Amino acid sequence: MIAELGHFALVLAFVMALAQSTIPFWGALRGDRQMAAVATPAALTQFLLVGIAFAALVHAYMVSDFSLLNVVENSHSQKPLLFKITGTWGNHEGSMLLWVLILALFGALVAAFGRNLPDKLKALVLSVQAWIASAFLLFILLTSNPFLRVNPPPIEGQDLNPVLQDIGLAIHPPLLYLGYVGCSISFAFAIAALIDGRIDAAWARWVRPWTLAAWMFLTLGIAMGSYWAYYELGWGGFWFWDPVENASLMPWLATTALLHSAIVMEKRDALKIWTVLLAILAFSLSLLGTFLVRSGVLTSVHAFASDPTRGVFILAILCLFIGGGLTMFAFRAGKLAPGGMFAPISREGALILNNLFLTVLAAVVLTGTLYPLVLEALTGTRISVGAPFFNLIFVPLAVPLLILVPFGPMLAWKRGDLRAASERLFFAFGAAILAGIVAAAIAGTANVLALFGVGLAFWLIVGALSELAFRAKIGGVRFGDSLRRLAGMPRSAIGTTLAHAGLGISVLGLVAATAWSSEDILTMKAGDSITVASRTVTLQGFLPREGPNYSETVVRFLVGEGGRTVVAMDPSKRFFPARQTQTTEAAIKTFWPSQLYISLGDITPDNSVTVRIYWKPLVTLIWLGAVVMAIGGLLSLSDRRLRVGAPRPARRAVTAPAE
Amino acid sequence: MRLRLGLGLVLLVLALSPAGAVNPDEMLKDPVLEARARSLSEQLRCMVCQNESIDASDASLAHDLRVLLRERIAAGDSDQQVLDFLVARYGEFILLKPRFNAHTALLWLAPGIVLVVGGAIVFGVLRRRRSGGQATRLTGEEEAALKHIMADDR
I need a labelling partner for A176 at 20 to 30 A (CA). Which of A151, A302, A341, A596 fits? Predict the structure, then answer.
C-alpha cells in the first residue's frame, strides 16, 4: 500500500513538473503575473511529492518489502538497518529517484528563498528546472520504476553488493548528486537569461551562491569518493582516472571556472557571454556524468546498473538539454552585450587565464574519457585510455594554473601591478623554496619533481595566506589593528584564502603520497614481523569472527614504536553468503598526517597470509585539503553580500539592451 | 539476455574483488628487474577488468599477464620489446597509454589544440578589452529600449 502511494506520488510529481514547465513559462513570456506565480507553489508541491515517493521507497527497504522487485534485487533482511536505508540508492532505480529528489529540492529552495528575484526571471528559472525534472521523472516512470511489484514475492532478497555495504554509500552519492544537480540551477538561470535576452551583474550575484553550493558538494563528494575507494578497494590508491571519477571531475573543473568567471561578471560586468556558456557547459558535463554512470555505457567499477534502453533514453535527455542549451546560446548570445574594459595584467586577466586552463583541463578529461567510446563506435578499434595517459597530460597542464593561483587575488581590478604583486608574494616564494629544501633533506633528491611539487604546495598555501596578511597589513600596523582588520574582512575574502590554501594542502598530500609511499608485499605467518617507516608490524594471529550478514577472518597485527606496542590493526577477509562474495577490509591507522595501511591477499591452509603493507606519508592531507576548500566555500556562501535572501544592492546594475 | 547479465555480474565481481594484486611468489628475484616489471605492469590493462591495470587487478588473466611479462623481462627483453610483444599478442587495447597513430592522433593533439585555440581567443579578448576607447555607444534604438526596460522594472 505504501509502495502504491509512493508510485502514485511519483506520477503526480511528473504531472506537477509538466504544469511547472509550461504555465509559468507562458506567463513569463506573456507578462501574465498570475500564471508566472504558479511556479513557486508548483515547485514546492513537486518537491513534496517526490519526497513522498522517496520516503515510500526508503520505507520499503527498511521493512524489507520483498514484493518490490527493486528491494528483492538489492536488499536482504539480515542487512544492518543503516545499509538497508543506504541501499535505497545503491542501485540504478533508487539512485535516479535520489537524483530527482535533489533536483526537486533545489527547485523548492529557489522557490522558497528566491523572493528577491524578479518575478519573470524566477518563473523562467523554475520552469526550465521543471523541464529537466519532467524528463527525468518520465525516465524513471518508463524505464527505471522502483515501485514495480513481483508476484509471488520471494522470501529473501538477493542482497546488496558487499562492496557497497559501507558508510561511504550513505554519504558519497548524495553529496555528489547535490553537486551535479546543483549545477542545474545555474543552467536554468543561464537559459532563463538567454530567453529573456538580458543579463547583468545582478544575475551573476544570484547565480553565484548556487554555483558555490554545487561546487562545495562536488568537492566534498569527490573527496569522499576518493577516500572510499582508498580504503575499500584495498591497494592504497586514491585516484584511478576511472571514467566514473572523471565524470565527477569534469563538472568540478567547470563549476570552478564558473565560480571565477561569475566574480568577473558580478564585479566588472564583463565575461557575460562566457559565463552563460560555462553555466550551460557545467550542467552538460553533470548530465554527461549521470549518463556515463547510469547508462552502463562504460563497464567500469561503478556501473552497477546496465540496460541499453535506459542508456538510449538518458542519451536522448542529454542531447535535448545540451543540444537545446547550446543552440539557444548560439542564437541568443549575440543579444548579450559585452561589458567593461581592463588591462591584460589585472584581476580580470588572471581570472580569464584561470578559466582558460580549467577549460583545457576539463577538455583533456573529456576527450580522454570519451575517446575510446567514440573510436570504438566509429571504427571498431578498441583502445584504452588510463592513468598513464592522464598523468602525462593533465598534470603538466595543471601546474601552470597552480603557479598562477596566488597572483590572482593580489592583482587589482582593471589594471594590476605585476611587480607589486610579486613583491607581496616574495615571502611565499621563499617558503616554497625552503619547503623544497626541507623535503630534499628528509626524502633525498632522487625525485626532483616531487620536491618541486612540495614547493608548489607551499607556494599555494603561503601565497593564499599572504593575501590575507597583506589585506590585514600584518607587520605594517600594530598587531591589534591587524587582527581588527582581519575580523572585519568580508567572509568571501577569507573563503577565497581558505579555498586556495586547501588546494595547496591537497597538492601536498597528493605529491607526498604519490612520490614517497612505501609498499611491502610479503607472505607472513603468526609471529613474523617487518619494519615499515621505523615501526615494527607484527602478525599476532588469526581470529574468526561473525558479522551481522557475513563471516570474517581477522588477521591481527601489532604495531610497535621503539619496542612498545602502540596499536593493533585488524584487516580482514569477509565472506557474504547471500551473494557468495568475498571482500577484503583493509586496516588503516593514522599517524597524523600519514597513514599505515594493511590489506590482505590469500590466506593459505597452512595459516600463512599474503600481506600488503603501505606507508602513505601525508596522505590524509589530500582529503583534508578538500574539506578546507569546502569550508572556504561555506564561508563565502555565508557572506551577507552573497546570501540568497540579502537585499539587492542600492545601486541598480545597468541592464543590457533587450532586443 | 540472461547470459549477458550473468557475464556482466561475473565481470563486475572480478572488477570489484578487492585487489592488491602482485603476489610474493610472482616477483622476480632481482629487485631492478622487478621494479621494471612493476612500472611496466602499471601501464598495461587487465583486459577482462574495468579500467584496471594488471598491477592492481586480482583477476587470473592479470596474474597470467604479470607472469608472462616477468618471463619476458627475465629472458632479457627491453621494456619496448615487452610492450611490442604484448601488443602483438593482445592488440593496442592492452596499453593504458595508447600509442600515437592515425587512430589516436586526435586524442593526443586535442589538449594542445584546445590550449592554442583557447589561448588565441583569450589573447584576442585581452587586446580588445585593453583598447579602451572602443566601447560601442548604444544606438538610439537601444537607448530607447534601455529606458523602456528600466521603466519596466520599476
Answer: A596
Question: Cell 509502495 sits at which residue?
Answer: A3
Contact residues, chain A, for B13 at CB < 8 Å? 581
Q: Which residues of A touch B26 (CB under 8 A)?
A: none
Question: How many whole angstroms separate alpha carbon A129 and alpha carbon A108?
Answer: 10
Residue A506 domain flag: yes
- B52 Rama sector, left if φ>0, alpha if ψ -120 to 50, beta otherwise: beta
Chain A residue with minimum CA distance to B1: A307
User: What is the rounded distance in angstroms from the CA atom of residue A162 to the CA atom of residue A576?
Assistant: 7
Distance CA A135, CA A325 (A): 15
Flag whether A153 is in a domain: yes
CA distance A30 to A44: 23
Minimum distance, in Å, between the CA of residue A338 and any CA atom of chain B: 9
Question: Looking at the structure, do residues A399 and A418 belong to the same domain, yes or no?
Answer: no
> Does residue A378 share a domain with residue A257?
yes
Cβ pair B111:A657 closer than 8 A: no
Do A352 and A219 lie in one domain? The reply is yes
Entry field: residues in chain B? 154
- Neighbouring CB atoms inside 10 A of B94's CB total 20
Grid-cell match 506520488, residue found = A9
Closest-CA residue of A relative to B38 is: A519
Q: Are A152 and A38 members of one domain? A: yes
ipTM of the complex: 0.78
CA angle at residue B115 from B121 to A368, to 5 degrees? 135
Q: What is the pLDDT of residue B134?
A: 45
- Per-position pLDDT tens, chain B of length 154: 333 333 333 333 333 444 456 777 778 777 888 888 888 888 888 877 777 888 877 777 888 888 888 888 888 888 888 888 888 888 888 888 888 888 888 899 989 999 999 888 888 877 776 654 444 556 667 677 767 766 654 4
Residue pair A34/A24 in contact (Cβ under 8 Å)? The answer is no
What is the residue type of A569? M
Same structural domain, A460 and A351: no
What angle, rounded to 10 degrees, do the helices at A347-379 and B105-130 form?
Answer: 150
| Extents of the domains making up chain B | 2-94, 105-153
Ordered alpha helix ranges (H), A144-238: 167-196, 201-233
**Cβ atoms A164, A75 nearer than 8 A:** no
Instruction: Give the number of C-alpha atoms closer than 13 A to the C-alpha of residue A504, restricted to the C-beta side.
Output: 27
Q: Rounded to 5, what percent of chain A is helix, strand, coil? A: 65, 10, 25
CA distance B104 to B112: 14
**Testing the interface with A: which of B10, B45, B97 to mutate, by most A Cβ within 10 A?**
B97
What is the third-level CATH fold of B2-94?
A: Helicase, Ruva Protein; domain 3 (1.10.8)
Whether A640 is in a domain gets the answer no
Question: What does the pLDDT read at residue A102?
Answer: 93
- In this structure, the answer to whether residues A472 and A495 fall within a common structural domain is yes
Residue recorded with cell 502511494 = A5
CA A643 vs. chain centroid, Å, equals 22
**Model confidence over A259-287: pLDDT tens digits?**
898 888 877 777 788 888 899 999 999 98
Quick: pLDDT tens for A279-336: 999 999 998 888 887 776 665 434 434 456 777 788 888 888 888 888 888 888 777 6
**For A653, nearest residue in chain B (alpha carbons):** B150
Strand A551-561 versus strand A535-546 pairing type:
antiparallel
- Structural domain of A509: 406-516
- Do residues A587 and A234 lie in contact, with contact meaning Cβ atoms separated by under 8 Å? no
